[in-house]
Write a structure and sequence with these properties.
about 15% strand, alpha/beta, about 240 residues
Amino acid sequence: MRTDFVDWLNAQPYTDNTRNAQLYRVKKVEEAYGDLDGHFRNGTYQQIIDDLQYSARDERENKPNLSKIKFEGNIRHNLQDYKNAAARYRRFLNEMDVSDMVRKPLQDQKGQPDEEFLSEKLQRFSMEKDLQFALRKNIQALSPGLRIIDDGAERNVKTGFIDITCEDDESIVVIELKAGVADSRAIGQILGYIGDLMVEEEGRKVKGILIAHDFDKRCKSAARAISGLTLKKYSIDFSFSLTE
């Protein structure tokens, strides 16, 4: 496991307990399956993710834990936590690779990175992380009765990472956050997550909330046709005071 993974975790909207739990779980996965960086380089990382998959149907059929990780307690919840941690470490590795790939061509062409381009990406990334952190601290401001069920970090599903996974008395709720104006691509993204959970949590109702500063016309029109999907706007309030 790379040492800069700790720095990457520190930049995420996680509590100290969540960061420590992610480090522990990645170490456990690596102890069971070997060098994760090596699996990433060799193209065998997905085999680990698949090995840690355990669905609601598997639980109903009382299937055993066939992974290489040994533990006590609920099989589905434990394997989901280990799978999420392993997938999160892979996302970290991917982001490190993409960062290098973006910077090197820019440096080759111009002699230095395109700071304006990189700054814009960083600001959007930072805003979405800040939104997630604030919402996690006060989830019921979004909707009374919501309870966060993702162990403090984004849940990994087949098509990506869900920003916040919640439940209410009736269903699982997928929450996706977008800084700025959301377009129709955001609709496709959250629908993919909803579809993934409908498979993983078979038998449970799944709905979604897409949050953005605003939505384009196509996004609004698409959402009207989708039962169980809600669009909500966020706003930022400023207050000012005189300096001493």
